[in-house]
Design goal:
The structure is a single chain. The protein is an alpha+beta fold. The strands form two sheets. The chain has a two-stranded antiparallel ribbon with strand order 1-4. Strands 2-3 form a two-stranded antiparallel ribbon. A hairpin with a 2-residue loop joins strand 2 and strand 3. The protein contains one helix and four strands; from the N terminus they run H-E-E-E-E. The protein has a domain of about 30 residues. The N and C termini lie far apart (about 30 Å). The radius of gyration is 14 Å and the shape is globular. The mean pLDDT is about 85.
Length: about 60
Amino acid sequence: MPDGDPKVGPVAFWGVTDIDAALRHVVSLGAVPQGDIDDVGEPIRMVRVRTRPARSSGS
């Protein structure tokens, strides 16, 4: 993104049918919510999560 912050890293938007279940799932895999689910206008709800950086496998 032209005005993106390189320290933040890439941002991806994903459409899901059940954001509550999707959030629970990604949190169970280690993602950290960066706020609450936000209702930005019917039917769109969104939340930002941060994932842990990938670890090097040593290869």
